[in-house]
Amino acid sequence: MKSCQLRLNMNHDVYIDEKDPVKLMSDIIDDIYLTEEFTTESEWNGDIPEDILMKVLIYGYMNGTYSSRKIEERCKRDINFMWLLENYSAPDHSTVSRFRQAMVEQAGRVFIALVSYLLKEGEVSGENIFIDGTKIEANANRYSFVWQKAVTKNEQKLRNKLPDLIEEIRSYGIKFPDNTPVKAMIETLSSLMKKLGIERIIGKRKCRNPMQRSLEKLEEYQSKMEQYEYYNSLFDGRNSFSKTDKDATFMRMKEDHMKNGQLKPGYNIQTAVEGEYIVGIDISSERNDVNTLIPFLERFNKFEQFVLKNIICDAGYESEENYLYLKTHNLVSYIKPANYKKQKSKNYHTMYGKAENMEYHEMGDIYVCKADRILWRVETKYEKTRTGFVTEKAVYKCENCEGCPYRQNCTKAKGEKTFMVSHRFHELRKESQDNITTEFGRQLRMNRSIQAEGAFGVIKQNYSFRRFLCRGKSNIKTEFTLLAIAYNFKKFAAKISQNRLGISLSF
Predict the structure, then answer these.
(1) How far is Cα 472 from Cα 265, in angstroms, rounded to an integer?
(2) Cα four-point dihedral sign 27, 19, 128, 314
(3) What is the rounded distance in angstroms from the CA atom of residue 375 to the CA atom of residue 372?
């Protein structure tokens, strides 16, 4: 009696639907890799061609598979991964990991090429760019932090000990010239010990020669100073970093595993979204969004894929510098003012001490308060931000606040009411507020919530991506770029299936 055996057709194409996103992704990646740029600039020399491994990696991210070991497992068991491999053997996890690390530049080129493809298809145009940021935790120890303030404080304490140490060494008959390097002091003291026949004792025994103790203090001083110098070179404008991922900065995040507002090492991810697609990415170490907008837009414009027009951001990006940058670059600002919600409250208009609730007369450069008293301009101050931007602020002082019936809702000062105001900032803020309160502006604000915040919602909630696997800023950028490519492919496939191609705004 013959046994019945089931034989599977090894042509994997038979088992995959023509409308499956894996085929859409494969076809587009094939088109991208046909261009000369990707064949000449590739640095990959593995057994499996780069374009095939790129497809495998992207498809893994499309399905929430980020670990190299899990991708290896899927390549052995999942028919879609087998089809992408085109009869090549499944790569092991070390090959996948090495490939991901080698694709720092190439992943960015694929992302740009995909955005260009969407531009040709009419899915994006650069007309309405929704910008938002989120913080994602780094793959680093949560408690191995180094703070700049602590380093500066300890470094100064150490420097203050050096004069006493030099005075101690002088008692041995050694005189060092001013500004003698510590290294030279160590060499001189060591040579003197050898000449005097003083043997250096190793261990924790107390019977050390006083000269040896001074030498050990100098060596400890030099070691710690070198460590502090190394730490200062890593800060690069930051106030902290993690010892296990030196590019990660400690930030306050919404996802708090201990529920106590704890700071965790992470990265501030900035994205530009249009037509529901991620069209721009930037990795920042800034803890807030306000200082990320200009660097992001400058990197974004560098690729010259399309001419930007409307920039839509939330209140976290509001600053005079950002407003001015957008205006000077002919970009229409749709930044929501930080006080936009407060303006709608009942108590806002009873806060008589605010400049917005007083009458300003440009002719005399004066303010008139609720009690019809004049506030004269008495001084001009210039303030510099952390980015080096200088803002001019006018200082106004009331002529006389005595007996004012509105004083309680105006000022808590014992003397006359005084306040500062930047006229340029208020003018730029008003322009942006006028833009967002139009019918089109309200539509853009609604779409910013849907598209920009929605993209992060999908990545964090649906894709369960809340912590990076790699370490180092370059690897982090590769990892998030692959995630953005995967997100765009899934969104493109979804819009095709829903017959929504060409629709960039929700009404």
Answers:
(1) 12
(2) negative
(3) 10
Angle at 355 between CA 351 and CA 360, to 5 degrees: 130
Q: Using CA atoms, how far apart are residues 103 and 38, in angstroms rounded to an integer?
A: 12
Task: Read off the pLDDT of residues 86-97 as tens digits, 9 standing for 90 and up.
Answer: 888 999 999 999
Asked if 454 and 23 count as a contact pair (C-beta separation under 8 A), the reply is: no
Which of 35, 74, 62, 67 lies closest to 51 in space, CA to CA? 35
CA angle 491, 25, 50 (to 5 degrees): 135
466 contacts: CB under 8 Å, gap ≥ 6: 136, 137, 255, 460
What are the tokens at 295? 């660097």
Place 414 in a pLDDT band, splitting at 50, 70 and 90.
confident
Q: Is the overall model pTM greater than 0.85, yes or no?
A: yes
* H or E segment to which residue 13 belongs: none
User: What's the pLDDT score for residue 445?
Assistant: 94
SS (H, E, C) 316-371: HHCCHHHHHHHHHCCCEEEECCCCHHHHCCCCHHHCCCCHHHCEEECCCCEEECCC
Question: SS3 of 120, please?
Answer: helix
Size (the chain), residues: 507
Burial (CB count <10 Å: 0-12, 13-18, 19+), residue 196: exposed
For residues 101-121, one letter each, b for 16 or more C-beta atoms within 10 angstroms of the residue's C-beta and e for the rest, the string is ebbbebbbbbbbbbbebbbee
Is residue 254's pLDDT more than 90?
no
Dig out the tokens for 74 from the structure.
């899927």
Rounded to 5 degrees, what angle do the CA atoms 139, 144, 145 make? 100
Q: What is the pLDDT of residues 438-483, one digit of tens each?
A: 999 999 999 999 999 999 999 999 999 999 999 999 999 999 999 9
Query: What span, in angstroms and rounded, lies between the C-alpha atoms of 241 and 235?
Result: 7
Cβ neighbours around 68 below 10 Å, total = 21
Question: What are the tokens at 384?
Answer: 């510099």
How much is the average pLDDT of 382-406? 92
